[in-house]
């Protein structure tokens, strides 16, 4: 019987352009929706401003300067032994306003250099096409509420699929696509509490993704295209049947996104909900065939925590943590930011998703946001991060060995400190590599290897056998 992680397992780490690159207007880049989000201050959620307002701090504008330091950063990833680097292309670097006919060559050249550097070290890029940064110029169309944006997205996809043919073979169409139900501005430049608007935007993203999957396969038969799910996984508050049903309802709200992208059609429970709520999808001739023909090759997802849901749950999607259900799990410790730490839940989630879809899975975000301290000698002792990751990897290994689940790879979030999506902070650090930048963007930007850096290097060298 095979034991442990497969030989070709894609070990690595994951970042996003808007949280890492900075250089927000360099080399012809246009503004994105991320570039008008301020940092969270004193627990108040990030503000979305009308353009860039003088005197306000926007973390994405400088981030950790990965745009200029990617060679140094990828060399550090290679030192850990990365097989895979999940990253995103900033759409507005390629089409600054989103609707141009001719792409920005400087942006294309930058990512040529990034991918060439990856391949220099034998690192396989896994590229997210749209990661929480829709070009701001598309708001004049209504962003994803307007079907025209599908064509702009496909023009972008066609450009990068052709340009990077042979350099990139793993793609994700949209980051955490179900965030359209929780934080629609991040998901696609949609600012509305109206469910009809959100479901119209989600429909257009489903259609865009399905067409992009088919296009990627046509351009290069070696391309593999996945979806990316924000890993909302819930336990019932009790064995009360009403708590069980409330949990099922919650999971339906999230998993229908996976249903459409993995199965190629809307599930009956969602169609009945639309019927009750009076929501009408803007379906045109041929659309349903496109969804069916554009099913993804694999399912990737983020996993940080689990929720507890019950009959008295009144969902709140406006907090910094994405969703509040009103219940706490007394069996689990929490992070500095109040997120449940649930390593066994990772195995549970892998089983839930594979049982449901029967396609390969990949965990493309998993990590611990914590406050790290640089010692006088320049070291960073983050044993808490090692403990978190070790426990999760042990559960992933069980999912492979005991449950027989095909898992393609694991890209920890984020291998280098970057600004946090939920808060815009730097003090909420995830990395194996410390970056000397504070919450106001001040610092030397110096990179420092943490203890976890050396631990993860041993994990990869041993293909997951040395976890202690």
Which topology does CATH recognise? TIM Barrel
Task: Write down how many β-strands occur, each being a DSSP E stretch of 2 or more residues.
Answer: 12
Question: What does the average pLDDT come to?
Answer: 96
Shape: globular
Question: What number of domains?
Answer: 1
The CATH superfamily is known as Glycosidases
Low-confidence parts lasting 5 or more residues at pLDDT below 50?
A: none
Spatial strand sequence of the major β-sheet:
1-2-3-4-5-7-9-10
Task: Kindly provide the name of the CATH class.
Answer: Alpha Beta
Largest sheet: 8 strands, parallel, barrel
**Helix count from the secondary structure assignment:** 13
Classify the beta-strand content into a percent band.
Answer: 5-15%
CATH architect. name:
Alpha-Beta Barrel
Distance between the termini: 23 Å
Keywords: Glycosidase, Hydrolase
GO biological process, one term: carbohydrate catabolic process
InterPro entries: GH (IPR017853), GH_1_N_CS (IPR033132), Glyco_hydro_1 (IPR001360)
Protein name: 6-phospho-beta-glucosidase
